[in-house]
């Protein structure tokens, strides 16, 4: 597949245990807990996506999900603005969301050949 070792590690874990869902399977939870701390960090989030958000999705070739992510994040910002809600942490929330969605999205893109615009595909 021509993947870097960190992606191979993530993809092998997803292949054996499934994707991280809102309610993960017992097998996923059990095997995730067995991993060393830094391995859990590698599977649970993506540092590049945390800092670069939708741009990182574009760099990985997931332009459909990048478009959806931009629209979704813009809508969240718009809702906070319309209702005059305090938006001090919205940037951090957006970054964490991007970081957690990147790994399963890239797995679906590369392994399952997903062409979906759904940024939550495989999560729900």
Give the tally of β-strands: 0
Percent in strands: under 5%
Distance between the termini: 27 Å
The radius of gyration over CA amounts to 15 Å
Percentage of helical residues? 55-70%
C-alpha geometry? globular
Largest sheet: none
Protein name: DUF2628 domain-containing protein
Organism: Snodgrassella alvi
InterPro entries: DUF2628 (IPR024399)
Keywords: Membrane, Transmembrane, Transmembrane helix
Account of the protein in words:
The chain is built from seven helices and no strands. With 124 residues, it is mostly helical. Helix 6 (63-82) runs antiparallel to helix 7. The protein is globular.
List keywords for this structure.
7 helices, mainly alpha, 124 residues, single chain
Layout of secondary structure:
Blueprint: H1 5-17, H2 26-34, H3 37-44, H4 47-52, H5 54-59, H6 63-82, H7 90-110
Helix pairs in contact: 6-7
């Amino acid at each position: 597949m021509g993947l870097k070792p960190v992606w191979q590690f993530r993809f092998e874990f997803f292949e054996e245990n499934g994707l991280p869902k809102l309610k993960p399977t017992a097998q996923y939870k059990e095997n995730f807990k067995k991993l060393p701390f830094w391995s859990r960090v590698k599977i649970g989030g993506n540092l590049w996506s945390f800092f670069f958000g939708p741009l990182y999705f574009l760099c990985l070739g997931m332009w459909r999900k990048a478009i959806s992510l931009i629209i979704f994040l813009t809508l969240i910002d718009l809702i906070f603005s319309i209702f005059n809600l305090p938006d001090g942490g919205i940037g951090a929330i957006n970054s964490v969301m991007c970081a957690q969605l990147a790994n399963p999205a890239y797995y679906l893109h590369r392994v399952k050949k997903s062409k979906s615009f759904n940024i939550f595909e495989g999560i729900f």
